[in-house]
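Predicting holo structure, pyridoxal-5'-phosphate bound.
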Amino acid sequence: MQIIFAGKAHPADEEGKRIIQRLMEWTRHPDLRDRIAFIEDYDMYTAKLLVQGVDLWLNTPRRPLEASGTSGQKAALNGAINFGVCDGWWREAYQADLNGWSIGKDADTSDQDVQNMIDAESIYAQLEREIVRLYYNCDRSGIPRGWVKRMKASIRTVAPRFNTDRMVTEYVTRLYTS
Ligand SMILES: *Cc1c(COP(=O)(O)O)cnc(C)c1O
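Done. Tokens:
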């Protein structure tokens, strides 16, 4: 498994910047060099390559701060499967055992450090027990049938409901003309 991180810390977000610094140190660790990568200067160009190229889209906002989660929608349209905290759009889109995986559901506690530990455990447990197995469970012609089924469910359930048609319609009817 290879984890690719991308993103930017807000200039005033000291904790965010420290997290990215620690991540950079991990990417240089001899045991992890091939396993984790950080892409700097996340922009439309790198986002396009990422949503087209990855198999699983990991999104870990702090509940309830996810404004929408547009990037996960773009990933789904490109056949990636979402694995995210049930917040923002994923709260509405996620269907258990069908179109992806959720990291927990509602917040278990208001203590963010404790919640982080619970979510981390949920990420590792699902990756190990289910997600990685499904990905590598190939038939004789080398096709991971279960994975492909979930990719198709991801596209089928996301594309008709999460798109710019809906966004523009809702801006107009719910904000501008109401
Ligand atoms: C899609 C996109 C975003 C929005 O991502 P979210 O996960 O919804 O925050 C931000 N920056 C770029 C370059 C994008 O392509």
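The mean pLDDT is 95.
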